[in-house]
Each structure stands twice: as structure tokens, then as C-alpha cells.
């Protein structure tokens, strides 16, 4: 039986890439830098932010960018431009909880980038039990050991989990850890052909479609 549903944040639980593209270009403009193209943003999506920015804006002063980014990030959050979770996705989480499953987040974000999602007054309160991220895991996707802390702290076995994500790296990490993987293609950032079929249990076009898939898994 599937006891835990582990969910990626960006372009899985919420659609993030397009909003992040706008946000990062606003920061670049503030720094007097030309905008990046959507093509280069997509090609580096999923990398750590500062690593990616070296390719998105060659020659960028990363320290200045890192100092300014949180200001714009907080404004985007306050204005409801970022980390917007569609009502239908919240409804799907409610059904998972009603089914008796533990819902956990596993993301490549840092702790500060994910902390607001676990605030007591956030919509995810009562739906998501915990979040695992760069600051509380020793390893990071696509390393299968990224699940080590989650499995150790919950006591849930790999065969009792399913991971829902949007990237081939998500699939590789889950497969290497013995965890079944559902590819969520809703963002359009990636297509099913980008994934190794050996690592994919199922693919869905929208997040709520994970419900019948999970309920069908032994």
C-alpha cells in the first residue's frame, strides 16, 4: 500500500518556471543587465539558482544578484505571482489526506525558499506534513540518497512511497531509491519522451490525475 506521497514543488504542485523567468529578469533589469531568453531559462531549469544564473546571464555579479533576489522574491510572493497552488491541486491533496496518506514535499529549493509553504497560515497547513530541501538533506536530486532523511525520519519504506515530479532527475532519484515515480507533465516544460521509461511508473497531464494512479498501486 502507498503510505506516503512525496511531491516536488516547482512545476508539479505549482507552476513555477514562467513566473520565475519574469522574476529573475526583473532582478537582472534592476542590476542593469539585459534580459535572458526563455530558451536559456528552460535549458537550465532545475539547476541551483546561482549555478543557473551563470549561464542565464554570463558575467553576472552573483553576489549582487543573490543580495537582491530575496527582495523581489518576497514581493512576488506577496503579490500572488509565485507559488500559486491551483484549487484543484489543493483538492487533490485533500483527497490524499482523506485516503490516509502522508503528504511530503521534496524539492531542490533551499530552506528559505520553501519555508513559507509550511507556515501555519499557509494553504498547505494540515495537508503537508514536512518538506525536504537542500538545507535538510545531505544529498540532492538526481542522487537517490536525497530520500535518505525522509525515509529515516518517517520510517516509511521505499516500496510504500510514490514520488510525483516533473523532471528526468526526479525520476532518476526515485528509481535509484526504489520509489515509484509519476511524471506530471502539466507545466509543458518537459515531455514524456524526456524520461527514461524504466524510471516512470505512470505519467499524468494534470496534477489531480495522480489520484486514480496512486489508488491503483498495490
TrEMBL record:
SUPFAM superfamilies: HAD-like (SSF56784). It comes from the Bacteria. Pfam families: HAD_2. InterPro entries: HAD-like_hydrolase_sf (IPR050155), HAD-like_sf (IPR036412), HAD_2 (IPR041492), HAD_sf (IPR023214), PGP-like_dom2 (IPR023198). This is Phosphoglycolate phosphatase. It comes from Actinoplanes palleronii. The lineage of its organism: Bacteria, Bacillati, Actinomycetota, Actinomycetes, Micromonosporales.
Amino acid at each position: 500500500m502507498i503510505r506516503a506521497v512525496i511531491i516536488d514543488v516547482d512545476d508539479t504542485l505549482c507552476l513555477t518556471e514562467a513566473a520565475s523567468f519574469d522574476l529573475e529578469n526583473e532582478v537582472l533589469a534592476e542590476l542593469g543587465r539585459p534580459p535572458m531568453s526563455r530558451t536559456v531559462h528552460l535549458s537550465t531549469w532545475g539547476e541551483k539558482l546561482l549555478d543557473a544564473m551563470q549561464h542565464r546571464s554570463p558575467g553576472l555579479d552573483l553576489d549582487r544578484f543573490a543580495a537582491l533576489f530575496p527582495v523581489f522574491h518576497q514581493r512576488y510572493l506577496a503579490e500572488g505571482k509565485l507559488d500559486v497552488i491551483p484549487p484543484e491541486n489543493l483538492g487533490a491533496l485533500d483527497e490524499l489526506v482523506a485516503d490516509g496518506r502522508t503528504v511530503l514535499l521534496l524539492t531542490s529549493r533551499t530552506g528559505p525558499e520553501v519555508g513559507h509553504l509550511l507556515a501555519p497560515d499557509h494553504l498547505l497547513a494540515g495537508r503537508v506534513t514536512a518538506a525536504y530541501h537542500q538545507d535538510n538533506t545531505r544529498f540532492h536530486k538526481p542522487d537517490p540518497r536525497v530520500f535518505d532523511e525522509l525515509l529515516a525520519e518517517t520510517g516509511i519504506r521505499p516500496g510504500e512511497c510514490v514520488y510525483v515530479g516533473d523532471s528526468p532527475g526526479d525520476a532518476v532519484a526515485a528509481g535509484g531509491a526504489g520509489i515509484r515515480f509519476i511524471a506530471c507533465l502539466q507545466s509543458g516544460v518537459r515531455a514524456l519522451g524526456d524520461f527514461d521509461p524504466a524510471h516512470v511508473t505512470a505519467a499524468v497531464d494534470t496534477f489531480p490525475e495522480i489520484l486514480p494512479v496512486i489508488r491503483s498501486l498495490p
